[in-house]
Amino acid sequence: MKKQNGQYVYSPHDLILFMESEFASWMDRYCLEFPRDCAPDDEDEALVLLQAMGEEHEKAYLSKLIDSGRDVWDIRKQVGDPHSETIEAMRSGKDVIYQAALRSGNFAGYADFLIREPRTSTFGDYGYQVWDTKLALNPKPYFLIQLCCYAEMLEAIQGRRPQSVGIILGNGEPKSFRTDDYFYCYLQLKEAFLEKERLFDPTKRPDVSKFEECRRWNGFAKKLLEESDHLSAVANIMKVQVKKLARVGITTMNALASTELQHVKDMEPSTLDTLRQQARLQVQSASLRKPLYELITQNQADPRRGLALLPPLSA
């Protein structure tokens, strides 16, 4: 997400983020509007490593295409505007266009590969499909959202939506998907996203407790939960348990720590005791340098749990 000449420009990544976490999507927009008011988490080293591995996978597939004798056009090596260079490469009928710059309406992005196919388009008796490389060994839903977004941008250039989109999985296996099987689901998501962006209100932040994954805003989300004493800050508590406790008026960690309730509907008494004990320890540890702890008594009916899974003491 970025702002150019007063206009917002979105990428397929922005759609995927909105699909996974409305809170993280809102925070990205807020940070764009008020960059001094918030700061995302530091870059995750594991994520950086995965990105590097993804780039190696992409380069390996590029080399494979070149070695096979395909006419590969690398947009990164051109000196002109990437989008114009992409269109010119399509007009020239290149077999493969690498790092194709696509855009349409408020969306823009770089597709890993455009692969030529025999199909009528504005360029004549051929058109292009979108293919991306992914480290995963199995397709994931957000892959198809990303590819459909590229397919729509490609349609704006060649006059026809590609019939198929494809993924090169981490093991090198190609997977092709019929575009229209996923395209209308993509359009619904895109419409919902653009409506949220249109109605964006910097004073109405989404409830962070509804989202488990906040991407680069995880640290900020954790801080918000701690400041509001939200039940979600209780270690190992589940969302369904938060809802059950809220129904009996327990909405904060302090309230859970001090409650004398012995029964919550649809919750085992032992579960309530464990959650109350955990909340109490966290509340009491808040001002301490070293947090308090209690050893959990071994359950004789199920002894092989927790630290009891360790092997016997060895000299």
What does this molecule look like?
- This protein has 315 residues and is α/β, with parallel strands linked by helices.
- Helices cover 42% and strands 15% of the residues.
- It has ten helices and eight strands.
- The strands form two sheets. It has a six-stranded mixed sheet with strand order 3-4-5-6-7-8, sandwiched between helices. A two-stranded antiparallel ribbon has the order 1-2.
- Helix 4 links the parallel strand 3 (72-74) and strand 4.
- Helix 1 (12-20) crosses helix 2.
- The N and C termini lie far apart (58 Å).
SSE order and pairing:
Blueprint: E1 2-4, E2 7-9, H1 12-20, H2 22-33, H3 45-67, E3 72-74, H4 82-91, E4 96-104, E5 107-117, E6 127-133, H5 141-158, E7 164-168, E8 174-178, H6 180-198, H7 218-227, H8 239-247, H9 253-258, H10 269-285
Question: Would you kindly provide a brief summary of this structure?
Answer:
The protein is α/β, with parallel strands linked by helices and 315 residues long.
Class derived from helix and strand content? alpha/beta
Shape category: elongated
User: What's the end-to-end separation, in Å?
Assistant: 58 Å
The overall average pLDDT, rounded, is 93
- Number of discrete helical segments: 10
